[in-house]
Amino acid sequence: MDDQPVLVFDSGIGGLTVLREARVLMPERRFVYVADDAGFPYGGWAEDALRDRIVDLFDGLLRDHDPALCIVACNTAFTVAGAALRAAYPGMTFVGTVPAIKPAAERTRSGRVSVLATPGTVRRDYTRDLIQSYASQCHVTLVGSPRLARMAEAYVRGLPVSDEAVAAEIGPCFVEEDGARTDIVVLACTHYPFMANVFRRLAPWPVDWLDPAEAIARRARSLLPRRADALHPEEDDLALFTGGRPDFATRRLMNSFGLKVG
Length: 262
Ligand code: DGL
Known about the structure:
The protein has helices at 16-25, 47-65, 75-88, 101-107, 119-123, 125-134, 148-156, 163-170, 196-202, 213-223, 248-256; strands at 6-10, 31-35, 69-72, 94-95, 112-117, 139-144, 176-177, 180-181, 184-187, 208-210, 238-241, 260-261.
């Protein structure tokens, strides 16, 4: 049990924003990062097809890596497949990522919150249910960006991304009505925190950009036994891609996160 890794799953590089927090809290753990780049982007997939794909993928992942716990570091994946994963693999603990609507509703002063996600996540019943359960007293604006996840993939690889294009994607998050302005934008796609500084610079007014990565890492930490022994050497941490060996820029990115591309 003790040497079992934590498996972190996303459609692409977004889960790295969660991995970096998880590493801080679980320095003794080995990590396996899995990017379903062959299926990227998840935002435009039909729900049933995406759910089946993810449940099938985990069949092999659980067998090959025997993880102690899995973090589904992708809102688009977890909101559609979280329940199915738990039903299909009852022996495994899945820590999910869902839009941080509850903490946003607790923190907003203006009562206006926006959720910046993929088109898939904003369509989900799961997201609507979160709003009904926790934010019925707020005005919630759902913004499903068809392009931002791709832009974030490019941005972290050092490719140019135009300010105008980013501003057009985040613009609908900024709502001003009856003298009240949006004061919190939930980053409901794990790719987006990589661009938070760009968002801040291009925002028409300052808002709190809510990134749930640390909360997800804390949840995972709380579910795994703590080990008092030495740090786990990062050289053992792996990154795997469903599309096969990734390009040089991606390999360099993974290496910069201390992940060996397998
Ligand atoms: N990182 C994923 C999320 O949190 C989505 C990116 C994609 O469209 O595949 O929703």
